[in-house]
């Protein structure tokens, strides 16, 4: 791509100290990022110039209007266009779970979906879990149980665990659930490990991750 | 990823009209397609998003079966109470596949249409008759541990990766489609996936512009339903061998059996010969041996996957013992 700025129309925007202050954080981050964002966005872009698409994303309760190359994954939109870098890029192929976010409360791999496909849908990232300055119970439990070492997989682990608890409370079964005809399965260690198998931790903090999730699962809702 | 134009389909007819054009590709969950697009194995010039079409319902069919909308998520299908009560083999197969995040995105029709995980199909620097017809098959003399022992050809020995489709094969599912002219039909799942022969790039009987709208399940057959998956890890790995079995037996005699296999062939593999050996047979090791021999008639290893022959034999033994235990 020769002139990535022109695609998103930002070369015409003049950023001053005043406009930055007045338009707030998301606009600042958007205007500060475009060149790097496109460079780090869709890879291998050696085809004809793509037609940009308008996308309205609802991230952690905040609306964001973006104009994106349609190839932009939801993960790249979060990290490179909105500077929400809590969601991590591990494998970028849906194998590690580091990019896990919640859409309508359901956990998915944000690297394996296009941002444009989620126009208007509510997305929750790790940045959106804490409420009123208090950590989400799952975040607090990960801290308490030392559910990490390097921390790179942690935001994906926590978002995945939050989605997993919701699935479990809806009575959704897993591969290790003994009797499928029963509505809900008790969250044993085996159940937690199976249900969390889409999140890899190379530091192998698994015992502490399981302990953190178990503690949160046992808390009253 | 190659550049493409993106459009969201407003209706099935809209999607079918767009999909019939060269370079067009339907996207629903996208968990396999986007992976392949990043690697430039798939290079559509127009992506048609059908993810918001109203094809996400599971309905009771008049014949006592189920009609599963093409866009029902794998997780929702596995958790549906009717599927859990009456089609346990399907629920188990779905839960055996992928991760929870992927199952939350992957759709019923997309699961049927997912591509092989053959390493050489994924690596665009290597020959592959499926990806690049006529270029050769690097798996024949390469690393072929995960490859087919049944139904392969000298042009392609890739396996179909789905667990869900194996259970659907045992359940005699139908694939309901509509084309751009509005004609609907139901393709029996036995005829939906094709063997490679000398055209491994053609994987299904779908025609350009033909869209899957649903999968139909007839009423469940009598018997115990089991899905057994043997893989390299306890979770989140493709099958080396899997067996979907529905076995009706009493007091040590088998009345009828249905057996479908994953990990062994380029399509979900059913063995009518083995089922015949088990019909009205004693539920004992002699019968199980005969059934395994029938399944594996004509089986061929390519070096790295030779182990699948005895593994299939032992897995089938174990499954038949489990399903006939009274």
Descriptive report:
The complex is a heterodimer of chains A (221) and B (326). Chain A has helices at 4-8, 17-32, 34-39, 74-81, 137-144, 154-169, 189-195, 206-217; strands spanning 53-59, 62-68, 100-103, 106-109, 122-124. With 221 residues, chain A is of the alpha+beta class. In chain A, strand 3 and strand 4 form a beta hairpin. In chain A, helix 5 (137-144) packs across helix 8 (206-217). Chain A is globular and about 50 Å long. The relative contact order of chain A is 0.12. Chain B has 326 residues and is of the alpha+beta class. Chain B is built from 13 helices and 13 strands. In chain B, the strands form three sheets. In chain B, strands 4-5-8-6-7 form a five-stranded antiparallel β-sheet. In chain B, strands 9, 10, 11, 12 and 13 form a five-stranded antiparallel β-sheet that branches. Chain B has a three-stranded parallel β-sheet with strand order 1-3-2, covered by helices on one side. Chain B is globular, with a radius of gyration of 20 Å. The chains are: A alpha+beta (221), B alpha+beta (326). Chains A and B meet through strand 4, helix 6 and helix 7 of A and helix 2, helix 3, helix 4, helix 5 and helix 6 of B.
């Amino acid at each position: 791509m020769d002139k990535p700025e022109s695609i998103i129309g930002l070369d015409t925007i003049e950023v001053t100290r005043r406009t930055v202050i007045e338009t707030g954080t998301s606009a600042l981050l958007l205007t500060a990022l475009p060149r790097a964002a496109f460079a780090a966005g869709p890879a291998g872009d050696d085809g004809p110039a793509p037609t940009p698409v308008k996308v309205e994303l609802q991230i952690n309760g905040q609306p964001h209007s973006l104009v994106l190359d349609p190839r932009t994954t939801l993960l790249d939109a979060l990290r490179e266009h909105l500077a929400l870098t809590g969601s991590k890029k591990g494998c970028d192929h849906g194998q590690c779970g580091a990019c896990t976010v919640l859409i309508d409360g359901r956990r998915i791999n944000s690297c394996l979906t296009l941002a444009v496909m989620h126009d208007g849908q509510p997305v929750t990232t790790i940045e959106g879990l804490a409420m009123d300055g208090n950590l989400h119970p799952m975040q607090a439990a990960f801290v308490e149980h030392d559910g990490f070492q390097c921390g790179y997989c942690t935001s994906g682990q926590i978002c995945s665990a939050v989605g997993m608890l919701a699935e479990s409370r809806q009575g959704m079964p897993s591969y290790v659930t003994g009797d499928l005809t029963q509505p809900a399965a008790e969250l044993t260690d085996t159940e937690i490990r199976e249900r969390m198998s889409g999140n890899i931790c190379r530091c192998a903090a698994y015992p502490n991750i399981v302990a953190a999730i178990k503690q949160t699962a046992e808390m009253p809702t | 990823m190659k550049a493409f134009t993106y459009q969201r389909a407003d209706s099935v007819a809209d999607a079918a009209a767009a999909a019939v054009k060269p370079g067009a590709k339907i996207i629903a969950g996208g968990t396999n397609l986007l992976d392949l697009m990043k690697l430039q194995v798939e290079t559509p010039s127009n992506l048609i998003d059908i993810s918001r079409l109203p094809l996400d319902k599971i309905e009771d069919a008049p014949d006592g079966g189920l009609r599963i909308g093409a866009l029902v998520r794998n997780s929702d299908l596995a958790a549906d109470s009717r599927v859990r009560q009456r089609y346990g083999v399907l629920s188990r197969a779905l839960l055996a596949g992928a991760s929870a995040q992927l199952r939350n995105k992957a759709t019923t029709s997309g699961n049927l249409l997912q591509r092989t995980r053959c390493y050489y199909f994924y690596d665009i620097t290597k020959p592959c008759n499926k990806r690049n017809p006529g270029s050769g098959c690097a798996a024949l003399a390469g690393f072929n541990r995960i490859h087919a022992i049944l139904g392969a050809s000298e042009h392609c020995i890739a396996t179909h990766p789905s667990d869900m489709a194996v259970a659907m094969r045992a359940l005699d599912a139908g694939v309901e489609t509509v084309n751009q002219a509005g004609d609907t039909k139901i393709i029996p799942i036995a005829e939906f996936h094709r063997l490679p022969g000398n055209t491994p790039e053609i994987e299904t009987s779908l025609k350009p512009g033909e869209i899957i709208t649903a999968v139909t399940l007839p009423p469940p057959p009598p018997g115990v339903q089991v899905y057994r998956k043997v893989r390299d890890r306890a979770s989140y790995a493709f099958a080396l061998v899997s067996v979907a079995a529905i076995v009706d037996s009493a007091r040590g005699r088998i009345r009828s059996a249905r057996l479908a296999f994953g990990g062994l062939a380029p399509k979900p593999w059913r063995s009518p010969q083995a089922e015949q050996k088990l019909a009205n047979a004693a539920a004992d090791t002699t019968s199980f041996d005969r059934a395994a021999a029938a399944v594996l008639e004509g089986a061929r290893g390519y070096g790295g996957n030779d182990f699948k022959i005895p593994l299939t034999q032992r897995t089938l033994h174990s499954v038949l013992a489990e399903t006939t235990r009274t």
